[in-house]
């Protein structure tokens, strides 16, 4: 059996294997892209809702109710003692209502992934004991919350 005969006989199997390879490499590229965008801070959640009319055919009283509900902002505030090592600086800044660079400035953090780096990862990269970093961050957050 020569190669041409084998290709004609098994072309569907060869095509499926080729598609599997293409899908595999596309998935790898997608995962790499997501990791890149996350590390650059471009995949942060949006905390504000777009100003769009949800129900255009609603009555005026329903629109007023919707507007009232949209204007109520509930942002949970995390107690400083509840901060844990798995949390990122960005998460702590948002839920503790800290300025974006407060912890960066006070800790002298120079990690290029700040604020999208977990406390435990930052401690390991910086050669700091994670528990010491955790207590330090908790103290700084508590101090900020007490004065503001």
List keywords for this structure.
single chain, 148 residues, flat
Topology:
Elements: H1 3-9, H2 11-39, H3 60-71, H4 89-95, H5 102-107, H6 119-126, H7 130-147
Secondary structure: number of strands: 0
Q: Give start-end ranges of low-pLDDT stretches.
A: none
* Overall 3D shape: flat
> What proportion of the residues form beta strands (DSSP E)?
under 5%
Percent of residues in helices comes to: 55-70%
Mean pLDDT: 82
Distance between the termini: 82 Å
Count of domains: 2
In short:
With 148 residues, this protein is mostly helical. Helix content is 59%, strand content 0%. The model has no long low-confidence stretch (mean pLDDT 82).
Provide a descriptive summary of the structure in words.
- It is built from 7 helices and no strands.
- The chain has 2 domains: 3-39; 70-147, no CATH class.
- The chain is mainly alpha-helical and 148 residues long.
